[in-house]
TrEMBL record:
SUPFAM superfamilies xref list: NAD(P)-linked oxidoreductase (SSF51430)
Signal peptide: none
Coiled-coil ranges from the UniProt annotation: 174-201
Name the record gives this protein: Aldo/keto reductase
NADP-dependent oxidoreductase domain segment(s): 33-210
Transcription regulation keyword on record: no
CDD domains linked to this entry: AKR_unchar
Alphabetical keyword list: Coiled coil
InterPro entries: AKR2_Oxidoreductase, NAD(P)_OxRdtase_dom_sf, NADP_OxRdtase_dom
Amino acid sequence: MATREATWAYRDDHDEFARTFYRRFGDGVVSSIGIGTYLGDPTDERDASYHDAIVTALESGINVVDTAINYRHQRSERVVGDAVADADVDRKAIAVATKGGFIPFDGARPADPGAFVRSEYLDTGIVDRDDLVAGQHCIAPDYIDDQIDRSLTNLGLDTIDLYYVHNPETQLKVNSREAVYDQLEATFEQLEERAAAGDINQYGVATWEAFRVPADHDSHLSLPEIVERARAAAETVGNAATHLRAIQLPFNVAMADAFTVESHDGAEGPQSALWFAHEAGLDVFTSASIMQGQLAAELPDDVAAKLSGETSAQRAINFARSAPGVTCSLVGTGSVEHARENVDAGRYEPLGADAFDAVFE
């Protein structure tokens, strides 16, 4: 797993970046730009392109890789594992994150997805039918336990640095909010046990809507409640403190809700997800930093004028990692060319707090 000594040494070996490029994560440091692995066809050619891009990024100054077991039908996890092994970088200098929640296919979409889910997960007892939502999503403890084992195998790692419960708001399609919190607490207990065993180092919750929508939205989940449930889980298991460490949510020029929407109850009233996370000591990893490529083409002129970078993609990345409380902004990196462009974004200064606030005036 990533260690304090190795991540700080990695930072010292890559001292050509602008200020605050490396940021604290636990007692170590991580790059404020990370590699995302969501997009792309499930093909050998795409695997090879991803592999080379990840190796390039890791050897150039980015030491965060984010994936999920369902991305590209488990291919993304397997490519990440190969790239981490092949890169000329100490494994202990790299923070590897993955997620569990969506039922993954194996290498390719099966001809009969329903039959695959039944034979692989329902008939084997890994998933209880009552815990399965929309035929594809489950966050029950036993299922997540199984997914951690599969991810460790795919990645070829002894320890996953950060393991996310993936899009728990999906469960709200059929379950009450209280039922989802109860299931999260039970799953957090399982994650606390896996952390105590050393299989994961920290865990978090990765979302698409849950933390950035108004409190009365159907997909809303409360960060204060999730933190309390994690603390209760740690106490039940007997851990001295919770291993809940991070959240992941979309944040970019066009999707700035995590900064602007105050939907979480803080000590002095409603707070945005970014502000609450900061006060609660949670690291924030942002997804969709260039809106799955859309912002690589063009940014609004008034916003682009305030940001540094040679390309629209670089400016969009620098907007995302300028937000207060953000530890790392994840960017899909499917080619060596894009890897180099994303790395180079870190050579420019991010916006200061006042300049960032001015974007919203």
